[in-house]
Amino acid sequence: MKTLISGAAGFIGSAVLRRLLAAGHDVRAVILPQSDHRNLVGLPVEIVYGDITDRRSIDRAMAGCSVVFHVAGDYRLWIPKPDEVYQNNVAGTRNVMLAAIEAGIERVVYTSSVATLGSNPDGSPADEETRASLRDMIGHYKRSKFMAEAEVKRLADEQGLPVVIVNPSAPLGPRDIKPTPTGRIIVDAVSGRMPAYVDTGLNVVHVDDVGAGHLLALERGKVGDRYILGGTNMTLKEILCVIASLTGQPLPRIRLPHSFAFSVACLSEVWASLVSKKEPRATLIGVRLARKKMFFSIEKARRVLGFNPRPAEEALRDAIGWFRENGYLC
């Protein structure tokens, strides 16, 4: 059985790829020619070059495959050209799903995000049934992922797309080569570049458990359903406390009000736009998102898929170890 995976060179994609290879899948990875290939070095995988925004290249990559994992996504909170994230996350996802329908693919696993889920007024962890609408989505990344997931659901309902949707939370662990916005928190905290923090929270999960969850979704998931692949709900202060205990790095003691963090993000974005031309360390969207604790329940994935993530401390330890070994910490 030939299995196609998009985004295999990325953080989550490389974890899914390794789980597929360990399970005996014959894997073909479609990646951009300019992608960073470090996460693929030494792996027994067929590599083809293509672009999810180019339908013909996806048709060619999918030829002869029975299963598709669409993991590729554009995860940026600061986006100078917003159209790019919609092209990648919405139009690109539509291309992959339509190609899968026409190719007669037996099963598709689509990597969405907890960013598409709503929040509960009482602050309790959200689950797969927590309602949300497009107007609830803050920023282009969240809006694009919400629109993409809605399109996947529409194709499942109207055209019989045999898809299972997974919604990873905030993964941590090895091979975060960019690094992701969550990984940058770890790098900055360990490197002593986080003198203060805001009152927010994340659901932290080991990236390799997210990879395992994708395979469980293939094997046990119900077509048309979605499953949160998360781990432990932690405040940012709790995350920083664990990092301090693992590294001996002093814990930041200043908790910034969101209003002050908003001002810092404004200045950071202006500097990035006019001077550095690089992604700012603090973004306005990030501060807006931080106003709510992004806590989620994984009970459905536990019950239906048998998903059983490891403790958050192991994810943090492995992330710190990988960043240290690969020269990200100073």
Topology:
Blueprint: E1 2-6, H1 11-22, E2 26-31, E3 46-49, H2 55-62, E4 67-70, H3 82-103, E5 107-111, H4 139-159, E6 163-168, E7 170-172, H5 181-190, E8 196-198, E9 201-206, H6 207-220, E10 226-229, E11 232-235, H7 236-247, E12 254-256, H8 258-276, H9 284-290, H10 299-305, H11 312-325
Parallel strand pairs: 1-2, 1-4, 2-3, 4-5, 5-6, 6-10, 7-9, 8-12
Antiparallel strand pairs: 9-11
Structural features, described:
With 330 residues, this protein is α/β, with parallel strands linked by helices. It has a domain at 2-169 and 207-230 and 295-309: NAD(P)-binding Rossmann-like Domain (Rossmann fold, 3-Layer(aba) Sandwich). The protein is 44% helix and 16% strand. It is built from eleven helices and twelve strands. The longest helix is centred in the N-terminal third of the chain and has 22 residues, at 82-103. The relative contact order is 0.14.
